[in-house]
Design goal:
With about 290 residues, the chain is an alpha/beta fold. It has 9 helices and 14 strands. The protein is globular and about 60 Å long.
Length: about 290
């Protein structure tokens, strides 16, 4: 496949590039800073609000995988930039349609869903609360209206909780590793909060699966396995040799996102399954932080 990937130097995008190239695909990467030159990779430094259409036309992509968005921890949920990303993304898809692209894979978010205390199926109607989730949902709705009745495939990939090498240092797993290694005592405010942590390698494989099989649908990218924040912290603490540093509030603080776990049966029906167990993935992350 000829893949056009946005956010090619980001956490998810860079991993996707590596896997796509290893699988023999030809890839054009769009990112604000250019990806490292590699055989089969067309690395373009460009902003999504001003795509290099001449170069895209020359590349003739078959599939657009759109991973770029504002994702800085502590910022992204209510950033006003989310509004811009809706408009930029819509314009990107429109321009790509005009240049013959007929398959799109876009990253949504698991927090578009209502929280129901059990695995979340794609059939649930979205009830987004944060500006980030509302913006993702609005883009999905706009594109669905635009493409209805056409021969274009739109795959809306709702991503759960990715972790692994290359993640922002303030993301939960990396933050816990760094703080525990420094000898800081950790007091968890929501120890029973349950999330679906998926290794970034498995995310990349899922996106390639969707790019090749992508009929128009919403698909969860998650493992289907829930892990509490306490379990996660205790595993990391054990791996870095500081199990004595993990404590928690009792009673815990309220948590509106208390159980965010995927029903991953739709993705699994396409032949995908997670390959990186949590313990293995955490060990690998820790090694990259040595």
């Amino acid at each position: 496949m000829r893949l056009l990937v946005t956010g090619g130097t980001g956490f998810v995008g860079s991993n996707l590039l590596r896997q796509a190239l290893a699988a023999g695909h030809e890839v054009m990467s769009l990112s604000r800073r250019p990806a490292t030159p590699t055989r089969g990779l067309h690395a373009v430094a460009a902003s999504i609000d001003a795509p290099p259409w001449d170069r895209i036309s020359g590349f003739q992509p078959e599939v657009l995988i759109h991973t770029a968005w504002e994702a800085t921890p502590g910022v992204y949920l209510e950033s006003l930039e989310n509004r811009n990303w809706v408009n930029w993304s819509e314009a990107l898809i429109e321009g790509s349609l005009q240049r013959g692209v007929r398959r799109f894979v876009l990253l949504g978010t698991c927090i578009e869903y209502p929280i129901i205390g059990q695995p979340l199926p794609e059939t649930l109607a979205p009830t987004p609360v944060s500006l980030y989730a509302r913006s993702k949902d609005e883009l999905h709705r706009r594109l669905t209206r635009r493409l209805v009745g056409t021969d274009t495939a739109l795959v809306w990939a709702r991503l759960f909780y990715p972790y692994g090498p290359g993640e922002h240092p303030s993301r939960l797993c990396s933050s816990l590793v760094r703080r525990l290694r420094s000898g800081e005592r950790i007091t968890l405010k929501t120890p029973h909060s349950t999330k679906d942590y998926i290794h970034v390698d498995d995310v990349g494989r899922a996106l390639l699966t969707l790019a090749s099989q992508g009929a128009s649908q919403t698909v969860n990218i998650g493992t289907g396995v829930g892990t509490t924040v306490l379990e996660l912290a205790q595993r990391i603490a054990g791996l870095v040799g500081r199990p004595d540093l993990v404590g928690w509030d009792d009673p815990p603080a309220p948590d509106p996102l208390h159980h965010v776990v995927a029903d991953a049966s739709r993705l699994r029906s396409m032949g995908w399954s997670p390959q990186v167990e949590l313990e293995e993935g955490l060990r690998g992350l820790i090694r990259t932080m040595d």
